[in-house]
Amino acid sequence: MSNKTIIHFDLDAFFVSCERRLDSSLNNRPVIIGGTGSRGVVAAASYEARRYGVHSAMNMSLAKQLCPKAFVIRGNGGLYSKMSKEVTDILLEELPIVEKASVDEFYGDLTGMDKFFGCYKFSKELRAKIIHETGLPISFGLSINKTVSKVATGEAKPNNQMNVAQGYEKRFLAPLSIKKIPMVGDKTFKQFSLLGIREVGLVQQMPIERMISVFGKNGRIIWERCNGIDDSPIRPFYERKSISSERTYGKDTFDQDIIYTTLSAMAENLSFQLRRGNKLTSVVTVKIRYSDFQTYSKQLKIKHTSADHILIPTVIELFKKLYDRRVLVRLIGVRFSGLTEGHYQIDMFENTNKTVNLYKAMDLIRNKYGDHLVRRANTLGEGSRTIGNQGNPFDGRPPILLAHRHR
């Protein structure tokens, strides 16, 4: 049995809590945050609104029907990232190792700290400090690994804490719904239900071979997590300031179609990298190097986003404003900076449900089969070569094309 001590922090109803910090009149009232239009999507809901059945990713029109007295707020991704950073800074100052799992979720490694003072006592004092200095409610779970700590946090919420003593992991997990185990989503839960299994305790009693035969390699991981076994490490948090991509043409060019294709492919690939890393950008920069090696750049500050249907047109417009010498182009580059942590949910403030689902589907295919399997039609062509994956990016598969329109 591991002797590690892992803490998991989760900011309660984070977006709502941020709004309430600015406006205390929202306290104890149902609040819904997200796209305010008829086709908008819910990004977050207060506990008061959740009692009416409102949840994230729900169509805003339906949410308003379920909870007509709710205060509906458009939301501010930049504000939430700023408040998340306040919590991050406190944790980095107090803990030896911190992993930032998302804008409102953190892991910390307290292993060995019991030699100096009790880990649970320290954790309670740290939680109290965060609440006092930021005004944001936060919960934590403490145990020997990430899985048990995360589940414990869920059981402690809202705005509370829980310690699962070493050796009690299986006993703690046994009566809980299998759905509370990380990586057990709706589809996997339905499979368990067909087997007559709904509680973790029943999985604990199953032979691991049976789990593997039904669920494949994931069956072993689920079985281990149900039994309180998880050796996954804490991944230290390092703030990345920017991501960029450049292309030097083999032959200097005037061809606008080639240049626009290159810029679009760069912006699309970088946007995907942002979403994969739970990042949002607020500054876009385009760089040009002419055939005489004169180099120029132009940047624009924008609202925090990771959506390529916003970033691609921005990059193209910046290039149009920058390119004025009518000299052959040797190199072009795109950089996204001003990065902040952020769930893709933050983009729901402006996206329709259809757009959000499209991005999720595209990114799922890219994560599974490669960055270039799904591409916008305007990123194909000579100008897109060598952008992103090298070698054979399609692995023998033709790309799925998406039409692209500038709005």
- Arithmetic mean of pLDDT: 84
CATH superfamily of the largest domain: Reverse transcriptase/Diguanylate cyclase domain
Number of strands: 15
Determine the strand fraction and express it as a percent band.
15-25%
CATH class of the largest domain: Alpha Beta
Provide an overview of this structure:
The chain has 407 residues and is of the alpha+beta class. It contains 14 helices and 15 strands. Strands 5-6-1-7-8 form a 5-stranded mixed beta sheet. A hairpin with a 4-residue loop joins strand 10 and strand 11. It is found in: Cytoplasm. This is DNA polymerase IV. Belongs to the DNA polymerase type-Y family. It catalyses: DNA(n) + a 2'-deoxyribonucleoside 5'-triphosphate = DNA(n+1) + diphosphate.
Summarize the structure.
One of its GO terms (molecular function) is DNA-directed DNA polymerase activity. The strands form four sheets. The chain has a five-stranded mixed sheet.
Architecture blueprint of SSEs:
Blueprint: E1 6-11, H1 14-22, E2 31-34, E3 42-45, H2 47-50, H3 60-66, E4 71-73, H4 77-94, E5 97-102, E6 105-109, H5 119-134, E7 138-143, H6 146-156, E8 161-163, H7 169-173, H8 186-194, H9 200-205, H10 208-215, H11 217-226, E9 242-253, H12 256-276, E10 279-290, E11 295-305, H13 308-322, E12 329-337, E13 340-341, H14 353-369, E14 374-376, E15 400-402
Parallel strand pairs: 2-4, 7-8, 14-15
Antiparallel strand pairs: 1-6, 1-7, 2-3, 5-6, 9-12, 10-11, 10-12, 10-13
Helix pairs in contact: 10-11, 12-13
